[in-house]
Amino acid sequence: MVRVGYDIGGTNIAAGILDERNVLICKKSMPFPRGRGTQAVIDVCTALYRALLTEAALSDAEVSGVGTAVPGSVDIENGVVIDAHNLDFHHTPLAGLLHESLQKPIAVINDADAAALAEHGVGALKGTETSVMITIGTGIGGGLILNGQLFRGGRGNGTEPGHMVLRNGGRLCTCGIHGCAEAYCAATRLAKDGASFGLCGAKEVIDAAKAGNPDASELFRAFVDDLGSYLASIVNLLDPERIAIGGGVCGAGSFLMEPLRANVKEKCFFETCPEIVVATAGNDAGIIGACLIAP
C-alpha cells in the first residue's frame, strides 16, 4: 500500500506518493486557485490525486490514506484548519471535504510539523529522540521531536518557534508582536535590510557578503548573530541532539553554517553543543511529512 500527501501553499499545491519504503515515487503540482473558494482547492487536490495514480500506474485501492500539510493552525483530531491566512481557510473542515471527494481516510497537519516529521523519518533528524527542525523562509517555522515523537503542543495548539520573543520591544513582526524571532531570523529580514543599500532579496545580500561588500557583510554578520542567539535559546531550553535548518538561506552552505555553529557554541550553556545541520528533505519535506501522517 502507498500513501498520498499534499503540501498546500498559497502559490502552489504539491502532491506526491510515498511507497512502502518511504520513498517518494512521483510528485506533481498545480497552482493554488486563489480567490475561487474552498471547493476549487478540493477540485485541484482531486485532479492531482488522479494524475499521480495515472503516472505511478497505481489503482485507487492501493492507496491506504491521504495526508495534507497546510501553513496554519490545525485541529488535528477533527481535521479542521482553524486559520491558514495565506489560503483563506478559517475553521475549514478540510479532512471532511477531501474525504467526501477521494473516499479515503484523511489526516491534516501543520506544514512545519510535516517538515519535522519528514526530516525525522527520512532526513537529517533520522535516528534522534530529541531534535528540532527550523525552516527559514519568508517567516520562521519549525517542529519539535521529543522522545522520538512529533510534539504537537501541550494543549494541542502546535508550536510556533518563529514567534518566540527574541528582543523585547524590537521590530514589529507580521503577527503584530514586537521582537519575534521571525522579524530577525527570517530571510525577509535580509531582503528588507538589504533594500536600504540597493540589494534585492536575501540571496543577493548573501552573494554580496561573500564578495566582500561591507554593508552586506555587516548585515549578514548581524543576521547570523541573531539566528545564533535564537538557536542557542532553543538549545538551552531543550538540550536537543540535533537541529536541522531548512529554507533557501541554506544555499549559502558553509558560508552560513560555519559561523552559525560557532555563534551557537559560544552561547550554549552546556559543555557540548548539539549538531546543527542542513535539512535534507528540501522542497519535498511537506509532501513527505504529509504522507507519513496519512492514516
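Above is the first protein from milestone M3; the second protein from the same milestone is given next.
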Amino acid sequence: MLLETLSNLAGPSGFEGEVRNFIKEQIMEFVDEVKIDRMGNIIAHKRGQGKKVVVAAHMDEVGLVITGYNEDGTLTFQSLGGINAKILPSKPVLIGEKRLVGVIGLKPIHLQSEEEKRNFSYKTCCIDIGAIGKEEAKKSVALGEYAVFDTVFETFGEGFVKGKALDDRVGCSILIELLKENYTCDLYGVFNVQEETGSRGAYVSAYNIEPELGVILEGTICADMPNIPKYLTATELRKGPAISMMDSGSIFDYEVVSSLRKLAEKNKIPYQLRKAVAGGNDASSIQGSGEGARVVTISVPCRYLHSSVSVCSIQDYENTKKLAISYLKTIG
C-alpha cells in the first residue's frame, strides 16, 4: 500500500531526502518534467493549455533534532515542528539514517514532585541510546542528527489505519495517485519541504510557479472523542474529506469552496466542513506569494496529529482522492 510505505519513511522537517527520493521514483513516468528546487521541493509538471494550478502536499513530518549530550550518555533534543511535550515520555525513536534505536526518558512518576507532575518540558526529558557516558554517546550520534518516532503503519478495526506522519503523507499519497490522471489545466504537483516549521518550502515553490489556483491536500485535526464538546471536534472520521473555510493563515476562496461542495453533492461524495480555524498549512504561502492565488484545502481527518501515531479512515482517504481528481477535471 502506497500510504503504508510513505508513512514508514523518515522525513522530518529539513531531512526530507528519503521521502523525496521515493516520491520522485513514483511519479517520473506520469509527468512531463520533474525538478528539485534549491529548498528541496519536488516540482512535477503536467503540461496543459488551461489555468495554471498547483496541487500541493508536504513531505515533512514532525520530529526531533539532537542538540547535546548529558554526562550519563543520554541525549538532549528539541522539536522539529509542533510536538506537545506531554506525549514524549517513553516513546521509542529512531535516530538518523542508521536508525539508531532510542527511548525518550523521564524521571519515574514515583520520584516526581507535584510540580513536576503538572509541568514538564523538553528540558526534563532525554533520549536514552544505551550509551555509557558522554564520550560513547558522541561516537554513536552526531549533533544535529534527526530522530523520528518508531511507529509501524498498521490496519486495524473496520477500515482504519494507524501510523506516524499521516500529516501529511496522506496528502503525498493522494497527490501521487492524482498525477497518474490526465487534465486540461496546466498542472503542477508540488511536494513541499519544511511545512511543519513555517511552510518555508511552499514560499519558494509558489513564488517560482506563480499559480492562479492552489489546491492543498492535507491531513487535518480530528477530535471526535469522548468528553470533547461537539463544537471542538473540527472534523469526524468516516464523514468524508474536510473542506476548510478558514484557518490561522488563510481565508479560503468562497467560490472555489462552493464549487467543491456542489461537485461533491453531484457525485455523491460525502464531505464535511472543517469546523475549526486553528492550525495552518502551505495554503497561506501560496495565497500570499507574488500576485497571489485562490486557494482551497481538502483534508483527510486524522486523530492524534503531531504525535507518535495518528489514525485515519481509508474511506475518507479514498473519498478525498476522488473529490480532488474530480475537481481538477472540471478546470479548463
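Note on the second protein: Residues 63-149 form a domain with the Elongation Factor Tu (Ef-tu); domain 3 fold (CATH 2.40.30.40).
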